[in-house]
Every structure is written in C-alpha cells, then in structure tokens.
Amino acid sequence: MESPHFDIIARLREIADSGLRSDQRVAAAILSDAEFATHASIERLAEKAGVSEPTITRFCRMLGFEGTRQFKVRLAQSLAIAGRFIVATPSAENGGSGVPGIITQGARDAIERVGKLINHDDLDRAATIVVQAAMVRAYGSGGSSSMAATELENRLFRLGILASSHTDGEMQQMTAAISSKETVIVAYSLSGEVKPLIEAVTIAGHYGARTIVFTAPNSSLARTAELVLPFHVDEGTNVYRPSPARYALLALTDMLAMTIAEKIGAPGVERMRRIKNLQGMHKSDAPNLPLGD
C-alpha cells in the first residue's frame, strides 16, 4: 500500500538521477513538465519521453501505483500543494529593483493588507480581554507563527502583564489543561489547520479560558476560538522570497500590543521607564535605541 507520506517528486528526481536509462527518460520528461504529465495520454507521454507505452505503465507500477490513472492523481495532488517549487524560476517582480526591492515591497504589501482588513472593534475587544487576564499564553507553531507568539510575550511583559509563549504542541496542550477563567490564550496560525494548536485552544476553552486567534478566516482554528482576528497574505509565486506573512503577523502583534498599552496607560509607561533606565546604565546611546534592544 502506498504511504500517505510518499513524496512522488522526490522519487522522480531520484530515478532521473540514478534509475535505469528508460526510467530516467520517463522521470525527466515528467519533471520537465509535470502539468503536461497529469493530463497527457500514455501515448503522448511515451512520445515525449522517447519510450514505449508499456514502459510508461511499468514505470507507474514500479512506483507502487496500480496504473497511470492513480499515478496522475497523485502527481496532480503534489502539483496542487507545491507545484511552484518543482521548477523554480526567478521572478521579474519589482521591475529590476533586485532583492532589496522584492523584500521591501512584499513586507509593505503584507502590512498594508492586514492593516486594511483588521476590525478595530475586534482589536479593541481583544486588548480589553488581555488587560483583564491574570495570565496570557501565546501559542504558535512553525516559523512565522512561533516568532509572533514569542514577540507577543516580549511586548506584554514590559507592560506588566504576566505572559508566556509556547511553540511546542505538547507544551501548548499541557499549559492549556491548567487554564482557568483568568487565562487568555492568543494563538497564531497562518493556515488555521495545525492540529496540536487547534486541540490546545479547544482544551483551554473547555476550562473557561478566553481564546483569541490570528488565523485564516473559516479555518478549523477560527471555529474553535471566542474571538477571531482573520488575515490572509498572498505568498506570490517567487519561491526564493521568504514569506511576507512574518511582517503581517508582527504588525498585527504590534497593533494589539499598542492598543493594550494605551488601555493600561501610566502604569505601563512607568514599567517601560524602568527598563529604559536600566538600559541607560549599560549603553551610551540608550536614549536613541528601541526599548529592550
């Protein structure tokens, strides 16, 4: 039986490098135009690879498929998920301004998009919930979401809010299990489909915790939370460009943190003053440096 984790593209590349000569031809032909391979008849695929039609059938069975039909379905699934990573081509975006322009434009577009989409009333409500919490736990998994969770903890402690961040699924669920009505969970997920994270938010909700999520609208995570701050960032087609979603999540975190800071007011400013005062003892240019840098 075919493994659900079988990576058909990786296997094709392996065969193209070191398989039998006829198999190399078939694998190379498929990889050169995977979209064509998902729709082409055995006849046309054999012609493109320069082999016989029985060779195509044998090739598919060698990979563990019953025939070409099942092979094409699996190839099409792989294309749908990660097709732009199969044959990567440099993007011509930003009109020749180079890497700095591409990164700058991607960050700007991502931040502007979430800035326009954010609901001010929901943002204010989220801030109020956090200010009233005895404990805030920030959850995120993977790259960008983990970074945002850690940054939220960094933003909150200086305002005098007890907060911790957790990027491990097991820790998320364990800390969720000791939640109470005084606990607030703030969870980040680009997809909203990370199962351990969804379970942690659900568990915390069962124990009375208030739950706020920054995630894709209509996702599984969105359906588990009390308050959803939905967002979406266009990843584009340039596979060499790091995801601009990181900038969007940081911007959203700053929006929440600033709204919280304004609600806390003078007590929060006093705590920040203490931090700044401490920094001034060790850095000559402390007045011109960001707080906590």
Q: How would you characterize this protein structure?
A:
This is MurR/RpiR family transcriptional regulator. Keywords: DNA-binding, Transcription, Transcription regulation. InterPro entries: Homeodomain-like_sf (IPR009057), HTH_RpiR (IPR000281), RpiR-like (IPR047640), RpiR-like_SIS (IPR035472), SIS_dom (IPR001347), SIS_dom_sf (IPR046348), WH-like_DNA-bd_sf (IPR036388). Residues 126-266 form the SIS domain. The chain has 293 residues and is α/β, with parallel strands linked by helices. It has two domains: 8-85, Arc Repressor Mutant, subunit A; 98-264, 3-Layer(aba) Sandwich (Rossmann fold), CATH 3.40.50.10490. The chain is 58% helix and 9% strand. The chain contains 14 helices and five strands. The chain has helices spanning 8-18, 21-32, 34-39, 42-49, 53-62, 68-82, 98-117, 120-131, 144-157, 169-177, 195-206, 220-224, 245-264, 266-280; strands at residues 135-140, 163-166, 183-189, 210-215, 227-230. Strands 2-1-3-4-5 form a five-stranded parallel β-sheet, with helices on both faces. β1 (135-140), α9 and β2 (163-166) form a beta-alpha-beta unit. α8 (120-131) packs across α13 (245-264). The protein is elongated. The protein starts with 7 loop residues before the first helix and ends in a 13-residue tail after the last helix. The model has no long low-confidence stretch (mean pLDDT 89).
